[in-house]
What does this fold into?
Amino acid sequence: VQALVKAKLSQSPRLWLVTNGAQPVPSNNLVILGVAQSSLWAMGKVISLEHPELKCVRIDLDPQQTIKTQAEVLFQEIWSEDKEDQVAWRGDERYVARLVASRHQQGISQQQGDATTQKPLCFREDATYLITEGMGDLGLLVARWMVDKGAKHLVLLGSCSPDDANSQKITELEMAGASVVVEQADASDVESMTRVLYKIEQSNIPLAGVIHSAGMLSDGVLQNQSWSSFEQVMASKVKGAWHLHQLTQNQPLDFFVLFSSVASLLGSPGQGNHALANGFLDGLAHYRRGIGLPGLSIHWGSVAQVEEVAERGADVSLQKQGMGVISPTQVLESLELLMSGSDIEVGVVPIEWSAWQERVAQWPFLADWQETTQTTSEISKSEFLLKLNATAPNERRSLLVAHVRRKFALVLGIHHPESISLETGFFDLGMDSLTSVELRNKLQTSLDCSLPSSLAFDYPNIQSLTDYLEKTIILPSDDTGSESETPETILDKDSLELESSESLFSEINQLYENEIDMAVDEAIGQLDQLLE
Ligand SMILES: NC(=O)c1ccc[n+]([C@@H]2O[C@H](COP(=O)([O-])OP(=O)(O)OC[C@H]3O[C@@H](n4cnc5c(N)ncnc54)[C@H](OP(=O)(O)O)[C@@H]3O)[C@@H](O)[C@H]2O)c1
It folds into this structure.
């Protein structure tokens, strides 16, 4: 991806990510032999968001087929014209990925009220439960919940010793009747993990369940990412989960829960490594279930009051993406439901679908999810271009300036777009590489064109960006300027002006109140000058 971006090719090539037996499909053979490649699919979602121009497609080939057949299928897919971007082949069957509602879609509290037949979840007194990230916010939240539900022996694993606040929480667990062993160990280090599991075995209180929650973030858009940042993020999730799987696979566990993220379900710009690491957890849950072991991967959305998320402003960024925040109580309610059920991979994410119109319209993965949203978004997709084309040529630039300003304001969360000066640099106003990608993508969609990923760097303020867009988007299709004025063209111009005043009315309808006030003040000022 980095090489493709650097190459600055005039026409973007298409990107196919090809895996072999990495996706679970409803076929006879449920074991995903290519589990190690499953994470690539999640990163593909981030590639699609950060670089829509690459039209990234994921194809999973059937490992049971001969290489020749696999090559033929791949050839056929590459020349296929269809819009599917997540495809798996098993035998002669072609599968496409779709997000579907889980049985719990009605809302957790409501479901719990209705679920009279479901046995309440409880934990065994005579068993040990291991929580990696046991000293993190979510880990301690879950530990407390498990103790309240009967767990008596916990092993909390973290890479550092607990700080004062967490030591206090651990003391509270002990006062509630649990014996708590704190293990300082790196989940990605096989020797440390072997030692921890050996100690549990020696305690004669058998391990009955694992919650793998360790993780860390090192965000950045893919074009600026480094391999070392990928390694750091993958260490606890990928290596840690694999060690846990291997070291416990011969023990009769009641559950093996993996804390994944919405990043691997829906993609998350600027979190390619996080999505990739969590994609492995999702694949591992399917792999384990395929070989008859327990496995559940939960794509959590942003959890409220979890320090790292709050400090990094991820809540705000997720909300801008149309996602809400889950309360700690909802986390526990969801865990209760999911750990009592039989799902393998589930998302727990509050989503404001109206903010997702662009993606719902374009992404087949969401096609079965909200058909009504899709219909409206298809209609509105090129609304701005229609408006631009219907506007008199001499008024198009100001329309474009207002449009670029609004998109920039939206991406940066600026409430008064009109306050953004045309010459002030985007980066002086708080833009970073992630928001530069968002701005480029928003303009690409609304202008229905392909734009370079270095757009905000090459044209770093509203003025220069509008100049560029005007040259590339408006002028090539604008052949009216050179025509001499004949009665017919004057007539055409009049009708154009009529259309343009209609389009201006619809533009005015979309203006913020203070923008209207400013425009009215400006017009009155001009009239005053004329009268003088
Ligand atoms: N919080 C959210 O909003 C959210 C959303 C989606 C998914 N998740 C997932 O849920 C899990 C917990 O999230 P959180 O926000 O509670 O995380 P957190 O507070 O940042 O805690 C991360 C924990 O992971 C531990 N850890 C990191 N690398 C480790 C390693 N190699 N070995 C052992 N422990 C390691 C850290 O231990 P030390 O501090 O001792 O290093 C820390 O306790 C993560 O996997 C995260 O991806 C969280």
Q: What stands out?
A: The first strand starts at residue 16 and ends at 20. The pocket of NAP is lined by residues 132-133, 135-138, 157-160, 186-188, 213-216, 235-236, 240, 259, 261, 300, 302-303, 306, 308-309 (CB under 6 Å). The chain has 22 helices and eleven strands.
